[in-house]
Amino acid sequence: MSRAPVQHVETCISVSPASPSLVLHINTTPETSLGLFGAGRKRGFEEISGLDEEAYARKYLATEGSVFFRRKGRTPRSFLWRVLEDRKLLEIQCVDLVHDKKAAKSESGLTFRVQLPAAIVRNGVVFADPEDVDSLEAYVLTASNELYTITLKRDLLTRETAPSEFDASTCVKKYSSNSLAFRHPYKLVAVSGLELFITLHDGGILRLARQPNENGTHWRETFYSEGNWGDTIRGLITLKRHQTVRYGDLELEPSAVAALAESPDGRHVWTVTLDHELKAWSTTTGKPIAHIDMLNQRFDEETKKLQKYVMSAEQGTLMQLVTLPTTSKRLTKSDQDLLYYIVLRSPKDNQFKFYEVSAPHSAGEEEESIRLDPMQTAATLIPPFAELMDTTMWHLEEFHVIPGPLWRDSQIWIRARNGKLCKTFTLTFSLWEKKGEAADLEPVWQNEWTSVDASMQTAEALRNCTDFPGDLEGGNENISTLPTEKWVDFLFSPGRFSTASIDTALSIYRKGRGLQAKSRIKGLSAPEVPLKERVTEAIGSKIVLKRHSTDQPDYERYQSSIQTEWKTFYSLLRDLHTRRHEAVGLALDTVDGLAWTVYADFVASIRATSQFEALVVNEHLLEGNGLQLVDESISTSIFPSNEAVHFAQVLSATKEFCSRLSPEFKEQFNNDVLLGALEDDTGDRQRSQKRVQDLYDTHDFSVEVMDDDFLALEHAAQPFGGLGDLSEAGILGVLELMQEDANNSGADPGKALSLYGNKMTIAIARETLEQHRSVLLSLLTLVVFMYGDLDQADLHPEFLSEIGPLYDAIATRLKHNVMLSWLARNTIAVPQAENTHGTKVDSITVTLLERLFIGDWDPKSKPKETLSEQLTKWSKQWTYGARLWDEWDGVTGHVLGFLIQQQSYELATDFQVFLSRGEESSSWLQYLEGRLLLATGEYAQASLKFQAAAGGMAEATKVAGSDTAHLLSAEEQNYFGDGHSRFYQHISALYEKLRIFSYTADFATLALDHLENGEDIGARSLMEIDRRKANPESPAHQRVGGALEEIDILKEYERRKEEIRGRLFTAQVETGRFAEALRTLSSIAERAIRHANLSTLIRTCIQKDAVPTLLALPFADTDVLQDADAILLSLAKKSLASGTGGGSNSISSTGATTPHYQILYAFRTQNSDFRGAAEILYAHLQRLRDAHAKQGILDPEEQTLVQAYVLLINTLACCGEGEGWLLADPLEGTEGKRRLVTLADVRAEYTAELDRRSEVLQGRFPLFAGVGGAGLGEEMDVF
Questions:
Q1: Hey, where are the domains in the chain?
Q2: What percent of the chain has pLDDT over 90?
Q3: How many whole angstroms separate alpha carbon 848 and alpha carbon 763?
Q4: What is the pTM (predicted TM-score) of this model?
Q5: Which keywords does the record carry (predicted)?
Q6: Is 1175 exposed, middle or buried (0-12, 13-18, 19+ CB in 10 A)?
Q7: Radius of gyration for the chain, computed over Cα atoms and rounded to the nearest angstrom
Q8: Residue 380 belongs to what H/E stretch?
């Protein structure tokens, strides 16, 4: 077989911390390691922008890394580590996916970045899980021959955010070995937290040991060498060798140890040397006790010299020591306690060898012996990767073995490389048959390998995404979306490209295009400009909109040029993205059975394929006799039935057909289909059938599909009998298989998602949605073509008769897919909790899908499922966990309510496309749309939505069940399900809060109308009370209780009316509807409230220069009239007392001062209160005379005082014969009593004033003036 079957897929997630506050920097440099270090800060703009490709690689791409797993039962236990920044930075972060629900705080949210003063040597990072302390220990060997011990204790591992102050010396210890000045380190191996081994270039081994109570500054050194393990002078002398192996700057001896491991019992150390030898050393005597060729080949000394093989120094995994599960029993030996196994991989021809190791008790006491027995001696176990990878040049980098009980159903995972191509393979095998006989392993080793499918995040896979715009022609006028919009959506889709990679590609692009290093967008400095805007600004910076010969803008050419520039930019980004996917490590969790691939800037869990995924990724097995070449157990797991084979053949034919269609055609067709899926009402056969025909006619398949394309489709359809045999059931079966992935069956495993589990779940959901959308669009494309292009006689009868339901089935799933994809593509900022010091930390950005629904993660598992299988199953269950068929309005309402609550109005507006329309739209959805329109300023449309929702919301007794996003407060919920009046009250309050008083008044009026019509006052309750009261047989206590209940109802009725009237009055006043406001005010029973509102009305009229309107108001109610007079009198007195004639509140919109006494005068005369009008006028007259007296200067031409006298005389004359009098109060600040002033008095005073003015005009000025001027002739001016 040229390609192996696929049973596992990788799902990549970015390893970048979600927030700077989640990064703890640990500096180990001597001058700063004892200082205090705070939490990570936001990286400055200039630290990212401006990087070239190599600088980017040094800063963000790991050159070495893996995942370390602590022992079972400890949490957190899975830690990703990477080496960055010219090997001077070690990054560590927890990648646990799940943890026990009942466990204490067990997940780590921090990323630890350990800065080293010198570069880390290759193979110079190892980890240990100390037995006595719950902590993680990292050991780092640098080029300066310094060994750093980094101890991360549990309290630090389980922190949610970095501490504000941190002393690096508490977790970093340094040890300097003078011995390494003579010998150079090759590899570092950790046996435990108390014992390390450093293999040396000359073949020696340096053992470092310490006691449990000693830290990383105390290590005891012991040299191991061929002659003796003692620390002797001989051990320090390097013997001359004729052949060496180049390893960087080192020259390694053939005896250099390339792999080292300690036996499970601690009695032996096994080593593999570059000269292809396996050695065992006794930890008791320090002497070698076994020494064989790795493949157990035996040569005499002469042949050995001639055929001596020395492997290269850049070796991956060469040896693994394993023990069988505790349930296993020894097959041939009696000493079970000392039994373990060695798995070797020889670099000669990548052959694997299995050895059984035992140390029998019959050995002498002084000299220890060991027994090493090869297993499967007759089999040559060489993986057929040359064929599987289609190359003769490949390199096996790593392998991991998980033995099964009695070596049955064991697993081996291998990572092989050919240049930059790196693939992972796995094999399930048994060394022994059930009867204890050796299994025939060689055929298994040759034919039963399965591969791991690459992540959908690779550059090659991204080209197949439905939203990839790189194959389109930008100048095509039929493409509805502009190139820039499509590229921005594609590039900034969450989890696809990192911010650093896009920024670096932008820097390279700007430099290549000769643009300025930093964007210059008006009004913003470079760090403030969002990355999206900087990219789009750079792309279009040198594109000019030219014109046709007709002087019309050539938009088609312009968009074509824009598309070309985007392709150029993407080619730069693609190269960076490819480097992000360079594999650097493979790790296997033997406890959970989950494998991990570590990439330069990703980490990927290797999960089992779902049944549907297996059909999609294994279509190559259907070619020729590929299926016959696959082992039956594997083919059965991929294709469990003939029906599954048929589904796979349909998918293969569909893919072949769509691959021949032009990108522009698929773009237009897909957009039309997706839009129709959201707008069309499914369930009408004829309408759906017409929709299929319309799709065919609109997109002109007859022109797009050429003869060669049709012949290719017919050929692809031959395996299932041709297109004529494709029935509706065949396509529906594929659709049902998609949904089976989400089958939520099994028992609760008691697990909860960790932080990385959230990321992984979302990543798998995105992959699932993208894969399903591609298949659904392809299936519908084929269905439309077959229905419109083929003769009915050539089609399956069921296909023709069920074309409507078939379209509905696909369109409905597309509708659900598009909505979930939208949630997975759009993000929202989520603030983190406060840290222990109470200070705020940065927010993190998550997708809406995670933010809204990750709490609904409810895993179900079956017995014996591995985490690899569970991960796929749980994620599929969660992705399609909501029953969108039955709960579409509930889910969309929840999303829309949440977005409104979060004030994400732009996202909420975009999301409206998913809401049900017409009769299918629920009252709650209409209410939510009204809330959104209200928030975005569309008040008129919001009013219509609220009125449309009123009927349902007035009867919605359980609105809390609809308001799953908790948009409504507990108090607001009381306004639902209690009649129209209460609902309209709520809407009126919403408008009032925004100070949109016109609609506040409208809805308050509606609320009052419904209330006064008796619709919402508990009419049924009152009728029941009346029935009980009218029944003479009712007990007295029931009649009394009924009466009290009736009183309570009526009181509540009056209270609600007063509340509504108060809001209505305020709105009417604010909108200038003063006459309506007065009517509302007059109906208010509470006098104090009425008086306060009347004061507001009068003051507002004066402030808005609406005095004529105020005077024209019909004060029919005597009490209201009296209150209005009193209010105006109070204002007039205050203004007169201020000496301005008007208060500070009397400035009209024109800037003129409003004299309050005139308003009161006009008000009283209009209401025939002439005496009252005369009183305020006389008070004004007194103020004028007092002011003139204080000035001491009389202008005889000034007529204000004279006019006041005339007006006062006329007003008193209007009082009637003999009624021309008033009561005058003394001026404030002067002594006197209230006195009677008649019309005659006023006339006499007026005459005196005229005389005085006449004297002045004749040139006779007063020698002194009468004081006060308030008397009537009692004091006179003397001229």
A1: 461-518+527-586, 640-882, 1170-1261
A2: 47
A3: 13
A4: 0.87
A5: Nucleus, Transport
A6: buried
A7: 45
A8: none
